[in-house]
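Supplementary Note 3. Input sequence used for the single-chain structure prediction.
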Amino acid sequence: MPRKITALRAGAKGRTVTVELDGTESFRLGKTSAAGLFPGQSLEPQEIERLRGDSRVEEASIRCLGLLARRPRSRAEIERYLQRRKLPEAEIRRVVDRLSEHGWIDDRKFARAWVENRQEFRPRSARALHSELRRFGIPETDAREALEGVREEEAALSAARKKAPRLLRAAGTTPEARRIFQQKMAAHLASRGFAFDLSRETARAVWDECAQAGAGDSE
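The predicted structure, written as C-alpha cells, is reproduced below.
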C-alpha cells in the first residue's frame, strides 16, 4: 500500500532529511538519497526500502572516506569494517564498488605503496611482505606484482644498517661486542623474515662496515 510524504525536515547540520509518512511514521535519509522527494508524493513500500538502502550506502560511503583520508586501505579492510557495522552484503558491495570506481580503493596501488613504504622505513623480506599483504586481503596477482622489485640482499642490508647504531651502543666496547652485535643483528633480521644464512652473513658484513668506519674516524 503506498504511503504519502506529509513533511520533509532537514537535519540540524543539513546532512540528513527526516521523511514523515502519513503524519504517523518517519525515517531519516541522507541528503543525497532524499533529493527529489517532495511533500504529497506517494511511495510504494519497495521504494521506501530502496531509499533506506540508498541512504545506508550513502552514509557508509562517507564513513569509509573518513577512514581512507587517514591512510589507504585495501578492499578487504573496507569490507570487514562494513561487516562490523552490520551493513547488508549487497550494500557492502555497492559501497566498495563505488569507492573503487572513484579510485579511492585500489588493491594494486595499495600493495605497491605498502611495499615501497616498508622497504624505505622498515625493510623486510619478500616472504614477510607477502604475509602482510595477505592479511590485508590483497589478491595474489597484485601481491606478486608489488613484490617483483624486492631484492632480499639489498633489503636485508638496508634493515641491518638502520638497526646498527642501536645495536652498537648495546654491544659496547667489550671483547664480546662483535659476537653480541652479530647475534642480535641476525635475530633482528630473522624477525623481519630473512633467511638464517642471509641474516648471519649480513650481520657480519654490517659489523665489518661499522668497524671500518670506526677505524677511519680514529685516523
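Residues 45-70 form the longest helix (26 residues). The first strand starts at residue 3 and ends at 10.
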